[in-house]
Amino acid sequence: MLVELAQRALIIALYVALPMLAAAVAAGLLVSAAQAALRQSDPTLTVVPRLLAAGGALLIFGGWMVAVLGGFWVELWGSLAQMIR
Fold it and tell me: Fewer CB near the terminus (10 Å): N or C of the chain?
């Protein structure tokens, strides 16, 4: 039962982190392509768009993330009595 719970927790962590990671990767690829085309190599130009993209994804998907984590938390507390036995 504990292995099942750990597996489910890892899957939920992946689902919750995926929107922000995907936004940061997409922004990084776009900025890297633009820097390669313009022959620029300023590190600030790569970090700031990734942070903004991750923040935007957090604003857009934040409610869904909290709902998924809250549902898991309620399920975890509901099955706590079974796990103690």
Answer: C
